[in-house]
Specification:
The complex is a heterodimer of chains A (263) and B (320).
Chain A: E1 2-7, E2 10-14, E3 20-21, E4 24-25, E5 30-34, H1 36-50, E6 54-62, H2 68-76, E7 81-85, H3 88-91, H4 98-112, E8 116-120, H5 131-139, E9 142-153, E10 158-164, E11 169-176, E12 179-183, H6 195-202, E13 206-209, E14 224-229, E15 238-239, H7 244-258
Parallel strand pairs in A: 1-6, 1-8, 6-7, 7-13, 8-12, 9-12
Antiparallel strand pairs in A: 2-5, 3-4, 9-10, 10-11
Helix pairs in contact in A: 2-6, 4-5
Chain B: E1 6-9, E2 12-13, E3 16-17, H1 19-35, E4 39-44, H2 48-55, E5 62-66, H3 74-88, E6 92-96, H4 99-112, E7 116-120, E8 122-126, E9 129-136, E10 141-147, E11 152-156, E12 171-175, E13 186-193, E14 206-210, H5 220-230, E15 233-236, H6 238-242, E16 263-267, H7 273-276, E17 284-289, H8 296-299, E18 302-305, H9 308-319
Parallel strand pairs in B: 1-4, 1-6, 4-5, 5-12, 6-11, 7-11, 14-15, 14-16, 16-17, 17-18
Antiparallel strand pairs in B: 2-3, 8-9, 9-10
């Protein structure tokens, strides 16, 4: 039977009142969580296991020790075990380039002999949206990006997917396995981890790997993050001030004046 | 070919050249100007001659056509554009950060061994280094990313650059491309439009649109009450539809509907770029959001910084 590999990322989000310092965003305003898109990818993997299409779901992340908290969430939701790739060299990179990420993940996919790789469309923090498809190319696998419906036919060795295009249109695509699918939000309903799942996750394996373990010697990113700033507000909005009642009264006047209220 | 050449790859679907193609030309023309090279444009598949004539606009030096298949297929695009890039050796390869662009650009850059920077809102070159501005954290910050050594691949955010226009006497160069379409790893079987559902939000004059700020499905009742007393039509941003709280036909944005109401009342919507793409043609945008820095205020005509759970009940009372 086939094995599924799910790539997950610890994604950073910033509080509304964040500050940008010389070294980028002040860490005190940053929170980490399982990337939203990867949550759907994990669910897709677990559903494939429940349907008997794959017999194991392995989660892989590139991230520091802190990221184990995130990868435990994937384990609590039903992934069987995990691999975490990290070393000091990776810690030094501001913004890891797509090719380095793809080479690390490809080495893990090779080691695991994963026939189905599930990846989120993009990460909510850097929004690159490129790792999954680059990974497919590196592995010599088929792929489909921005998938919002996934049906795997293991016997036929292929998957039929819907790709979510712009403007409410979907493309129907058949892809030969092995393949990488980048998963769009809305593909499924990610489950909440059960208490039992959370307990079980504590004893599941998270295997640490270094790039050297995976045969990748140089992880120096070709991307340099040279500036981070808050874009100038372009707002020309008229702000309606006051308490909620005052704001509502003024807003009601605006809506009546425009003539969109059916009274 | 001289250093500094730019190759921009156009995009089409179901017989139409997509706008992002001419936006790439605008970005590419400026880049070629700075980098001191020529601007080449490529189009792969479909009615390439018709597309080529539309792409021969001001700033374009040559249009390359590759006749293969009718519609986009990522395997075809990777193979065809790789061949063109080997032939033309452009310093800069510009691709769309569209759904199809996301389906082939990363594989192409990987195959060509070019560093890729995606979703650029600006692209420039300084001392032969690539300089790209791109947003992070859902448009909360902008970053500058540089890459020292080319050649480069960059994907450009749709809707960020103006459409190129005018005309040029660009050469149209037809390229032979031999590919066995039956032996590809993927096959496009067709297209399917998302069902409109019970209401056509593109026809509505007053849209009351809700986003993540609504928190729980049961809070939708509050918005239904507002729609009831005002006669507005309910629409939503992506997360609400992803959660299954409203039908897909109610979704506004890049992957949903483009709407043109007289008033678009955005409640608890932060205004991610994909959402904003769907409301640019609204006559008036009013935003209610707790976060004063939410990008939705950048395009709003009226802004209320406040908690929807206080403002909406008060607004209902105004009409009750």
């Amino acid at each position: 039977m086939m094995k599924a590999l799910v790539t997950v990322k610890e994604s950073a989000s910033v509080a509304d009142d964040f500050r940008v310092g010389d070294d980028g965003i002040d860490e005190t305003y940053v929170e980490y969580d399982l990337n939203e898109w990867d949550d759907y990818a994990v669910e897709a993997g677990v559903q494939l296991a429940e349907a008997g299409v794959v017999d194991e779901v392995v989660a892989v992340t590139i991230g520091p020790e802190r990221a184990e908290e995130t990868i435990r969430k994937a384990l609590a939701k039903g992934a069987d075990r995990a691999v975490r790739v990290w070393n000091d060299g990776l810690a030094e990179q501001d913004l890891l380039d797509v090719s380095t990420k793809a080479s690390l993940l490809a080495a893990v996919a090779d080691e695991e002999d994963a026939q189905i790789v599930l990846s989120g469309v993009q990460a909510s923090d850097d929004g690159f949206g490129a790792t999954g498809v680059a990974l497919a190319e590196r592995l010599g696998y088929g792929w489909a990006a921005v998938v919002n419906e996934l049906n795997v036919d293991a016997d036929a060795g292929e998957a039929t997917v819907h790709r979510e295009l712009e403007g409410g249109l979907e493309e129907l695509l058949t892809v030969a396995l092995p393949a990488v699918f980048t998963i769009q939000t809305g593909l499924n309903e990610p489950r909440y981890a059960s208490l039992r799942g959370i307990r079980q996750a504590q004893s599941k394996e998270i295997a640490p790997k270094t790039p050297a373990d995976l045969g990748v010697e140089d992880v120096t990113s070709c991307l340099k993050l040279t500036e981070t700033f808050v874009p100038e507000a372009e707002s020309e909005a008229e702000y309606i001030e006051g308490d909620a009642e005052t704001q509502a009264a003024r807003l009601a006047d605006v809506l009546r004046d425009v003539g969109v209220i059916a009274e | 070919m001289s250093d500094g050449d730019v190759l921009a790859v156009a995009e089409h679907r179901r017989g139409e050249l997509r706008d992002v193609s001419l936006e790439l030309v605008t970005a590419g023309a400026a880049l070629a100007d700075t980098a001191g090279g020529d601007l080449h444009v490529a189009v792969v598949g479909g009615d390439v001659d018709a597309y080529a004539s539309k792409l021969a606009v001001e700033g374009v030096d040559a249009v390359h056509t590759v006749t293969v298949g009718d519609e986009f297929n990522h395997d075809v695009s990777v193979a065809a554009v790789s061949t063109l890039v080997e032939d033309l050796a452009p310093t800069h390869l510009l691709l769309p950060h569209s759904v199809d662009g996301m389906d082939y650009a990363p594989a192409l850059s990987e195959a060509l061994d070019r560093p890729i920077v995606t979703d650029a809102v600006s692209v420039d070159v300084e001392d032969s280094a690539l300089v790209v501005n791109r947003e992070m954290y859902g448009s909360k910050v902008e970053t500058v990313v540089t890459v020292d050594d080319g050649p480069f691949a960059v994907t450009v955010r749709p809707g960020e650059f103006a459409l190129a226009s005018g005309s040029s006497d660009a050469d149209v160069v037809a390229h032979d491309f031999d590919v066995n379409l039956d032996a590809l790893g993927s096959t496009v079987e067709g297209y399917e439009a998302v069902e409109a559902g019970d209401v056509d939000i593109t026809e509505a004059e007053f849209l009351i649109s809700i986003g993540r700020g609504i928190d729980e499905e049961e809070n939708l009742e509050l918005i239904e009450d507002l729609a009831e007393v005002t006669g507005g039509t309910i629409s939503a941003s992506r997360p609400i539809v992803d959660n299954g709280w409203l039908a897909k036909g109610r979704q506004v944005g890049q992957s949903g509907k483009t709407v043109t109401p007289n008033v678009y009342l955005a409640i608890g919507i932060s205004g991610a770029v994909q959402h904003v793409a769907g409301i640019k043609n609204a006559d008036m945008i009013i935003a209610i959001n707790t976060d004063p820095n939410a990008p939705i205020f950048d395009i709003a005509d009226y802004g209320i910084v406040g908690d929807l759970f206080n403002v909406v009940p008060a607004l209902i009372e105004q009409f009750d």
